[in-house]
Amino acid sequence: MTTPLVARLRERLRPDQVRDGAAEVNLYRRDASNLSGHPAVVCFAETTDDVTAIVQVANEFGVPFVPRGSGTGLAGGAVPSSGSIVISTSKMNRIISVDHVNRLAWVEPGVLNLDLSKQIAHLGVHFAPDPSSQQTCSIGGNVANNSGGPHCLADGVTSAHILGLEVVLPDGSVAMLGGEEPEPYGYDLRGAFVGSEGMFGVATKVCVKLMQNPPDVATMLLDFSDVADGAQLVSDIIADGIVPAAVEMMDQLCLQAVEQFIHAGLPVDQAAALLIEVVGLPATVASQIERIRVLASKRDVGTIRVAADDAERALLWKGRKSAFGAIARIKPNYYLHDTVVPRHRLPEVLAQVYEIAARHELLVLNVFHAGDGNLHPLLVYDAREPGASERVHAAGDEIVRVSVAAGGVLSGEHGIGLEKRDLMPLMFSDVDLAAQADLRRAFDPEGLSNPDKVLPSPAGCGDIHSVPAGAWV
Amino acid sequence: MAAFADEVGDTGPVTVTGLGTRGGPVDGVRVVTAPSGIEWIQPAEMTICCGAGTPVTDVAAALAEHGQCIAVPAGGTIGGALAVGHSGIRRLGWGPVRDTLLQAHYVSAAGEVVKAGGPTVKNVSGFDLCRLLVGSRGTLGLLADVILRTRPLPEDERWFTSERDPWELLERLYRPTSMLWDGRTTWILLDGHADDVATQVRLGALTPADGPPELPGHRWSLHPSELRSLADASTPFVAEIGVGIVHHSQSRPGPAIDSTVRALHDRIKHEFDPTGRLNPGVDVLSDS
Alpha-carbon dihedral of residues B190, B193, B196, B197, nearest 10 degrees? Predict the structure, then answer.
């Protein structure tokens, strides 16, 4: 039976853009986290007007709506609340214009991250943020989560690459936040919107900054018999004034899993390896490689392998990016964490991560953005084993706590969503959180845009705001 | 910081001042000044923590000892530079000033100390209040102390000029730090390994220069693609190619503010400062 909400949406959009069949709606119950919700209907917007129409209907009926890109988020940010309207932007996937000389482009939010860089590669430019999910994640999703990636070390995360946004605000009005001009009047609403996890409205057009492709690239793999030496080297490099394009670390378990998968000749007998990429003009790249060699020799480095050509470079990166696929050979399930610690605390926090995992009788693989201290401990387990999920949650909770205690933060690039919502008080006082709630209220006075994410609910609101089963608390 | 919060209090109009280089406090309103001094520098984190009242020159000097610097324009205090939010002429290579602020403690209109952001170079925990504060001209909260991202001091920074088309240079040169154009001559700032600089100089047929041109006093903000139309301007200007800032000899035309954007600003101001006590009379959507 068609509900009045669905009937109204079908009046405002073409009927085929509005799907309420159980099978189809079920596909949109979850994102890439292990949380799920119960949306009422899924709408496929094709234009800004479509998004406006859907948001107006949401306001008419007083039901929440959830913007959704590719659904690759890991923190439950796109998990729909009960009875909500999912607004899929996947059909808004046009590259509107590219100005490669002034290095900016306007795109629709459903454009996939890697598609953008591929389609403009011949112009000698690219979009810098490169999450591991870049083949499938959307630019709109990157905006919502302020996404990162290995190459954000030197050039910054998504916020540094978004110049302007056309958004449909939660009341259905359309506003331009920021834009091509560098210093528009007023508050940096663009900056406030990026990373707002769908709670400030729906981005419908995005003006992205493009970066020049580097003339020279060197990719090197350095291995260590002690994880701490590799971790220390990261700080040494930065303190020496070198900011590589990327500094990634893989520990032994990860190296072994990946090597079985891709046969790249990875140093499987070593405790850890660093994948370092330096880019720029040739003399700069050459001198930075030499400086890194010297620094590494003081940290007891094993082998230093510099990729001889593009094929070898691609293979090394494939190793890094296949980690999540490779671990399926070890155990059927994994839980991926995302915290940041100051770089100089990496050795001790890594030691704590291993200790926590061992105490909970879990396997942990570490494959992460060492350059900016962004840890990604991967707890692998078999959910069919009694008590395994509980141990994974307990261990994960401890990892988050030790990261924050070491002067770190809750999330480096995955966001808070539902997963870490109730851990926000580890970092923020009630007063701090109230200020964030103020900003949310200014954008969305009625609280209809992706409610119940990011901000912990005030005590005493009962079950309605509690985190769903399986969530990270 | 607690003393600063007490000084701000929770009632009555209040205005903040640093060194007065960016317009100074609001007239006729009780004036407060933010804490000053560097709390720590962590070179391996590329971060610095300091009071908002710390002079930019003090921060620059202290960081230089560690071979680092910050993308905050010279002059006045750190808090003033952030509150105004204007970037320096190295924005093309160094990025905007808003990207330097990692964490801030500010005193709210209620006189409470609020933390925004976090201490690490990468952080997406919660909404980005730091971006909101940069350029807010003290209308949402008064900065008390900040953690800033630093960067390596440039190696052998040198200015050049060229008479070639600046967009041709922008396309050919690799990541120049700055490109300034007065309609005729282009000034280019390069740094890095001497061999690379030499290659770039040949590529762009660049001539060594003593420094950047003098910048006219008014500041316009245009689409970077609109700068070319300035070539016909009859009044002096210096445009930041690839960025869109124009240092102009005439004052900036008033903005046309969309009513939706105005309403959103009003709601934000109302949430953060319901009685309008912080820097009263300052309207971020105009030059007043």
Answer: 30
Q: ipTM value of the model?
A: 0.97
Specify the CATH class of A95-212 in words: alpha beta
Q: Which amino acid is at A267?
A: P
- Mean pLDDT, chain B, integer: 96
For chain B, the structural domain boundaries read: 2-153, 158-248
Residue B154's nearest CA partner among B177, B186, B128, B130 is B177
Specify whether the CB–CB gap between A370 and A246 falls below 8 A.
no
Q: List CB contacts (< 8 A) between B255 and chain A.
A: 184-185
For chains A and B, count residue pairs whose Cβ atoms are closer than 8 Å: 259
Residue that wins the pLDDT comparison between B28 and A470: B28
| Cβ of residue A278 closer than 8 Å to a chain B Cβ | no
Pure H helices in A146-246: 152-155, 189-193, 227-239
CB spacing of B125 vs A424 below 8 angstroms: yes
Q: Are A420 and A410 in contact (CB under 8 A)?
A: yes
Give yes or no for A373 touching B (CB within 8 A): yes
The confidence band for A458, taking pLDDT boundaries of 50, 70 and 90, is: low
Using CB atoms, pick whichever of A191, A241, A435 lies closest to residue B67.
Answer: A241
pTM: 0.96
Is the Cβ pair B119, A429 closer than 8 Å? no
Distance from CA of A443 to the nearest CA of B (A): 7
Distance from CA of A197 to the nearest CA of B (A): 8
| Beta carbons of B120 and A429 less than 8 Å apart | no
pLDDT for the residue numbered A325: 78
Residues of chain A in contact with residue B91, where contact means CB-CB under 8 angstroms, are 182
On whether the B2-153 domain is CATH 3.30.465.10, my answer is: yes
Q: Nearest by CB to B95, which of A156, A185, A236?
A: A156
Contact residues on chain B for A191, CB-CB shorter than 8 A: 98, 128, 130-132, 134
Fold for domain A214-329?
Alpha-Beta Plaits (3.30.70)
A4-88: CATH topology is: 3.30.43
**B26 min Cα distance to partner chain A (Å):** 18
Q: 10 Å Cβ neighbour count for B132?
A: 23
pLDDT tens for each residue of A286-342: 999 999 999 999 999 999 999 999 999 999 998 888 887 788 888 889 999 999 999
Q: Which residue of A has its CA nearest to B69?
A: A241
- Cα–Cα distance, B236 to B249 (Å, whole number): 6
CB A160 within 8 A of CB B97: no
At A221-241, the pLDDT tens digits run: 999 999 999 999 999 999 999
Q: Spell out the domain ranges in chain A.
A: 4-88, 95-212, 214-329
Residue A471 has pLDDT above 80, yes or no: no
How do residues A105-154 score in pLDDT, each as one tens digit? Answer: 999 999 999 999 999 999 999 999 999 899 999 999 999 999 999 999 99
A428 touches chain B (CB under 8 A): yes
Q: Residue B268: its chain A contacts at CB < 8 A? A: 187, 439, 442
Cα pseudo-dihedral A403, A404, A408, A411, rounded to 10: 80
